From TrEMBL, chain A:
Keywords: Cyclin. Signal peptide: none annotated. It holds the Pfam family Cyclin_N. This is Cyclin-like domain-containing protein. Residues 40-144 form the Cyclin-like domain. It comes from Coptis chinensis.
UniProtKB/TrEMBL annotation, chain B:
PROSITE patterns: PROTEIN_KINASE_ATP, PROTEIN_KINASE_DOM, PROTEIN_KINASE_ST. The keyword Kinase applies. This is Protein kinase domain-containing protein. Belongs to the protein kinase superfamily. CMGC Ser/Thr protein kinase family. CDC2/CDKX subfamily. Residues 302-402 are annotated as: Disordered. Keywords: ATP-binding, Kinase, Nucleotide-binding, Phosphoprotein, Serine/threonine-protein kinase, Transferase. The active site is at 138 (proton acceptor). Residues 16-296 form the Protein kinase domain. Residues 345-366 have a biased composition (Basic and acidic residues). Pfam families: Pkinase (PF00069).
Length: 316, 402
């Protein structure tokens, strides 16, 4: 379905700059890293619960939208990521059980923290029950925050249309697909319509390929003439460029991914602000959190930022 | 009335004034309410999510996701959705009646123009869905609601889903059985808009016959009923049939003339019906093509929605309901030929009087109901042969368990 009537969830650059997270003292690069981290979690969990790519894509868009409205300091990245993949699985007609999602996130947590893997996660344990209650609660939060507009349109179908029109060779098609999937880790999906993102991907593809394999007719950019693309596209390209750099700096192998993301340059710069967040977070936790969380045991124990600092202090 | 009074003080979500309950389902309760901000009468579907183990109800999510986008005069309008006190509330525009009530109401005479109008509105709503790449998958008279202005609107998108992506596998357990297309009964996992067309054809036939057309008691029996009506399909008619997952061979039955099944229908009408009831889903007419069929451009022109005969309003005449339960025992009313549309002038006059007219109509309805109730009992079972063999009334309409 082509959504037209309600395809309205877009943010301006100013809005993104003054995001709720910023008001809680999380700076831009930290927010970017947290966004990428959340998307990595979604992608990995999606593969583990055997979902198709479109579900992960939907979940990532939901994730970005949510954090345009709410702060990373107030909502735990991991739990929101878990809720996003769960909700997206329902929206994309391939529902997964809450238990399944919780188990997978628990396992990912254990692996990342080098903890002994619990082969049997008791679903009568308090830990499990709390996670489940939280998952359901967060889902409602998510829906409410988006005013129940939970449709998502992906650039993929536009891309496959465009490159078919441009008669792109098959190897570049895979490249385009990769770019489209990677673009979901950036905030592109909450800034531009998916057609625009698609055009950006195609243009990027064209710029990357040394030989002029894309048959763009003389006179330049045909897609732009249709009126779907304007100066935004240039923007778009730039953002994708940046993303490419980001992802290149991360080692790709599974386990190391998180640590790499955490240790990336961005983090060291933001030490001071992160420290502040941690304080704030702790205070909030003391007040509101019913469960006494120990960072290690569960998906959402403590915040990302808190954990990073701890690990960083220990010198791991 | 007393029920409404007790609720009159408390507002749901500080906005909606709760009135009487309209219906109840597995998902929750539907009740009538008044939007205090706009004064609009609405129907609120309350879905419990408090006890749900799997969070927000899957079908509710579908309904919200699709209806937020589908805005059309012939599709129910979702006004709002909000969580409140551990329940999910979906606010719809209020609809007075549904097509099942029209078909079942023996006091209503449907002229060919009325039938044309109803089926045209159904197809228009469906065409919009298909244009947006949405399959309804639960077409039945009960889900076609009729508003105060006579407009028919598609409702209940709990089974609807987006289609069109190649190689996606869908479940074949959709539609109430009587409206299920043969390819679904043979267990196909890949299907398209043809399934909705078949169901629309069943509704069309039901409007003509004033009773459900193909009333199978099991899936196998349903196919049997279909083949009795249209003949067993030959491979030339439907080449892909033998490759379907649950395909079983049926003994060959020749197709009777369609005219014998629908003696009152016009030639154009039969032609359209035949095209909608085509076995091969690939050859079946699309909704858009059906709307362009000459049936809709030939005389009589479809009745304007405001002039269509309607049963008494759901909210007003709850007292009349119990009598309606006997309706199945009465004689089957076949659609009368064009000439016998004699009640029309009277109806139009009553419509003109607005509210007062409604009251008179209700009164008339009471009298007629009583009369038909009497005759109903003295008469023997008029339904198709199958049921008289068992000596029981026809089975209740099958629905899907959700």
């Amino acid at each position: 379905m082509n959504y037209t009537a309600i395809d309205t969830f877009y943010m301006t650059d100013e809005q993104l700059k003054n995001s709720p997270s910023r008001k809680d003292g999380i700076d831009e690069s930290t927010e970017t890293t947290l966004r990428i981290y959340g998307c990595v979690l979604i992608q990995e969990s999606g593969i583990l619960v055997k979902l198709i790519q479109s579900v992960m894509a939907t979940a990532q868009v939901l994730f970005h939208r949510f954090y345009c409205k709410k702060s990373f300091a107030r909502f735990n990245v991991k739990r929101v990521a878990a809720t996003c993949i769960w909700l997206a699985s329902k929206l994309e007609e391939t529902p997964r059980k809450a238990r399944h999602v919780i188990l997978v996130f628990n396992r990912m947590e254990c692996r990342r923290g080098n903890l002994p893997i619990e082969h049997h996660f008791d679903n009568r344990s308090d830990n499990y029950k709390n996670l489940k209650v939280d998952l359901i609660e967060k889902e409602r939060h998510l829906l409410k925050e988006m005013g129940f507009i939970c449709h998502v349109e992906h650039p993929h179908k536009f891309i496959s249309n465009y490159i078919a029109t441009l008669e792109t060779p098959p190897d570049l098609r895979q490249e385009a697909w990769n770019l489209a999937n990677d673009s979901l880790r950036t905030t592109l999906c909450v800034r531009f319509r998916s057609e625009v993102v698609a055009c950006g991907v195609v243009l990027q593809l064209h710029a990357d390929s040394k030989s002029p394999c894309l048959r763009i007719p003389p006179g330049g950019r045909p897609l732009m003439r249709e009126g779907t693309v304007n100066d935004e596209t240039v923007h778009n390209e730039l953002a994708l460029d940046r993303l490419n750099d980001d992802t290149k700096s991360l080692p790709i192998d599974g386990e190391a991914r998180e640590d790499a993301a955490l240790k990336s340059k961005a983090y060291h710069k933001t030490e001071a602000t992160a420290e502040k967040n941690k304080e704030k977070e702790r205070k909030r936790e003391r007040e509101t959190e019913k469960l006494k969380v120990r960072d290690r045991d569960q998906i959402g124990g403590g915040t990302m930022t808190g954990k990073v600092i701890e690990r960083w202090r220990k010198g791991t | 009335m007393s029920e409404a009074d007790t609720h009159s003080i408390k507002l749901v979500a500080d906005r909606y004034l709760k009135r009487e309950v309209l219906g109840e389902g597995t998902y929750g309760v539907v009740y009538k309410a008044i939007d205090t901000q706009t004064g609009q009468v609405v129907a609120i579907k309350k879905i419990r999510i408090g006890q749900q183990k799997e969070g927000v109800n899957f079908t509710a999510l579908r309904e919200i996701k699709l209806l937020k986008e589908l805005k059309d005069p012939n599709i129910i309008q979702l006004i709002d959705a909000f969580p409140h006190k551990g329940n999910l509330h979906l606010v719809f525009e209020f609809m007075e009646s549904d097509l099942e009530a029209v078909i079942r109401d023996r006091n209503i005479v449907l002229s060919p123009a009325d039938i044309k109008s109803y089926i045209q509105m159904t197809l228009k709503g469906l065409a919009f869905c298909h244009k947006k790449w949405v399959l309804h998958r639960d077409m039945k008279p009960n889900n076609l609601l009729i508003g105060a202005d006579g407009q028919l609107k598609l409702a209940d998108f709990g089974l609807a889903r987006i289609f069109g992506s190649p190689d996606r596998r869908f479940t074949h357990q959709v539609f109430a059985r009587w409206y299920r297309a043969p390819e679904l009964l043979f267990g196909t996992k890949q299907y398209g808009s043809g399934v909705d067309v078949w169901a629309a054809a069943c509704i069309f036939a039901e409007l003509l016959l004033r009773r459900p057309f193909l009333q199978g008691s099991t899936d196998i029996d349903q196919l049997g009923k279909i083949f009795t009506a249209f003949g067993t399909p030959k491979p030339s008619q439907w080449p892909d049939m033998v490759f379907l997952p649950d395909y079983v061979e049926y003994t060959y039955l020749p197709a009777p003339a369609l005219r014998s099944l629908f003696p009152t229908a016009s030639d154009d009408c039969l032609d359209l019906l035949a095209k909608m009831f085509t076995y091969d889903p690939k050859a079946r007419i699309s909704v858009q093509q059906a709307l362009e069929h000459r049936y809709f451009s030939s005389i009589p022109a479809p009745t304007r929605p405001a002039l269509l005969p309607r049963p008494p309003r759901k909210g007003d005449s709850l007292n009349n309901r119990p009598l309606d339960l006997n309706a199945n025992e009465g004689p089957t009313v076949l659609s009368p030929p064009r000439k016998s549309r004699r009640v029309m002038p009277q109806r139009e006059r009553l419509e003109g009087h607005g509210h007062q007219g409604d009251k008179v109509d209700d009164h008339l309805y009471d009298v007629r109901q009583a009369a038909s109730g009497n005759t109903g009992k003295s008469e023997s079972m008029p339904m198709s042969v199958d049921f008289s063999v068992f000596g029981s009334r026809p089975p209740p309409r099958p629905t899907l368990n959700r």
